[in-house]
Amino acid sequence: MIRSASLSYQYPNGKQLRFPDVNLSAAEQCLLLGESGSGKTTFLHLLSGLLKSQQGAIHINGHEITKLKGSALDHFRGQHIGFIFQRNHLISALSVKNNLLMSPYLAGLPQRSERVDEVLRQLGIGDKKNSRIQELSQGQAQRVAIARAILNKPSIIFADEPTSALDDKNCELVIELLADISSQNKSALIIATHDQRLKSHIPKQITL
Fold it and tell me: Does the keyword Nuclease apply (predicted)?
């Protein structure tokens, strides 16, 4: 599903990061642990093709994404990768439904309202389809961001610090939700976090 080898990245200020190899199959889940500044976000951005690696290789579904460029990489990422960012980057002027329909549109896939309904029901916010983003609670907005990440049935889901701002109850809900989605959709899942509460939920772990 996803396999990386000998990845490294050098920042313009000269700091170089070398990353451990990753090898995950369908529906396999992994925590990427490390303190702030250890390179977790950089690693996720490399693995997802959001950031170009100077060295190393990344294979997703048999495709070496380090060799893809421009629109080819954008389309591949839209069709195979779901990313949950630290900030949700939802468009406040659009309804929940239209925020979600942007995902297949940008990936060059058909926009299917029934798929939006299905995912929102799965996440327990089916009644919020026509709501504006500013009308949602923080937890509801986060679920919309998760819905956007999984709408295209990606092969792999990346989540960057999805629980860092949550209390214990909502932390538990989000991690169980992500694990369930990974299992149901057979998507590999990598969560970057320094939240020690997650360690008991996902046994496979990589520490930077």
Answer: no
